[in-house]
Amino acid sequence: VAKKRNLPQSKFCRVISFISRRNCGGDPSSDPVCKGTFTIIFSWAMNAPSFTMPPDTSFPIGGDGYKYLVLQVHYKDASAFQNAQKKDTSGWELSMQTTPTKHLAGVYLFVTDGQIAPNGDTTIEVACRYTGSAILHPIAFRVHAHSHGVVNEAFLFHNGQRYLIGSKSPQQKQTFYPVENKTLAIHPDDVMMARCNMTNHENRVIYMGNTRNDEMCNFYMMYVVDFADEDQLHDRYNQQCFSDGKSNVDLSSFVDESQDESDMDDEYDPYWEF
């Protein structure tokens, strides 16, 4: 069982734009890095602070599940490393243990395609229905966009009500932040939606992509399940929500989006605390 604690130090912020760690299936490989399926278990950017998992909670590796970890680093400027005297020590520290924890963590990724019109504001949405069997408890979230991102946010639609999962500017330090609503619980057949608000002051259309000249609309939701529900972490149909930039679920049939509810269940006692 892997338990993450310390993240990259601030000295990396000038040259690194993004770091992610993935769980990979199959055998180790270099081309492609993950031959089998993979899941994102963490990502970091913009000189963000450290993150500590809640008590008795971990990401599982090994056994019948994912066999190895991959660290992926996106450099904003790697020219310094062309000097043979310069050493690249990018990375972060992980805390590992062999004793299983009571709760297991996963990351659900909202991501969209699409484009941003020139000289104006654009809203990009993605929504998916949760078809898994386990109840997911969101514990933290992270947003990611490039220079045109203003606010990324995500919501849960449950029994005719809308609940905020998280909202943050991608121009702030990018790590996982605890959700404010500790009563959140995602049940089978619930709908989740993420939205990215973008501003483009350039005279060109900006497309979603991986380079600095492109944009990205990402919302990462870290969730936990009971140890008995580990199969959820390997359910490839319920780890990611993708669209072409337009909401692929008719949200108007669920709830008036202007009405947010603070708590899902006043008697719910959250089993985790930061």
- Tell me the radius of gyration: 19 Å
What class do helices, strands and sheet pairing give?
Answer: mainly beta
Number of helices: 0
> Helicity range of the residues?
under 10%
N-end to C-end Cα span? 20 Å
Average pLDDT over all residues: 80
Biggest sheet character: 6 strands, mixed
Order of helices and strands: EEEEEEEEEEEEEEEEE
> What low-confidence regions span 5 or more consecutive residues with pLDDT below 50?
1-18, 266-272
- Estimated share of beta-strand residues: 35-45%
What does this structure look like?
This protein is an all-beta fold and 274 residues long. 0% of the residues lie in helices and 39% in strands. It is built from no helices and 17 strands. The chain has strands spanning 2-4, 16-24, 38-44, 57-58, 68-75, 94-96, 103-112, 115-116, 120-129, 137-144, 149-158, 161-168, 177-178, 191-200, 206-207, 218-226, 240-243. Strands 4, 7, 10, 13, 16 and 17 form a 6-stranded mixed β-sheet that branches. Residues 1-18 and 266-272 have low confidence and may be disordered. Its cofactor is Cu(2+). Keywords: Copper, Disulfide bond, Glycoprotein, Metal-binding, Signal. Residues 105-248 form the Copper type II ascorbate-dependent monooxygenase C-terminal domain.
Tags for this model:
mainly beta; 0% helix; globular; EC 1.14.17.3
Describe how the helices and strands are arranged:
Layout: E1 2-4, E2 16-24, E3 38-44, E4 57-58, E5 68-75, E6 94-96, E7 103-112, E8 115-116, E9 120-129, E10 137-144, E11 149-158, E12 161-168, E13 177-178, E14 191-200, E15 206-207, E16 218-226, E17 240-243
Parallel strand pairs: 4-7, 7-17
Antiparallel strand pairs: 1-6, 2-3, 2-5, 7-16, 8-15, 9-14, 10-13, 10-16, 11-12, 11-14
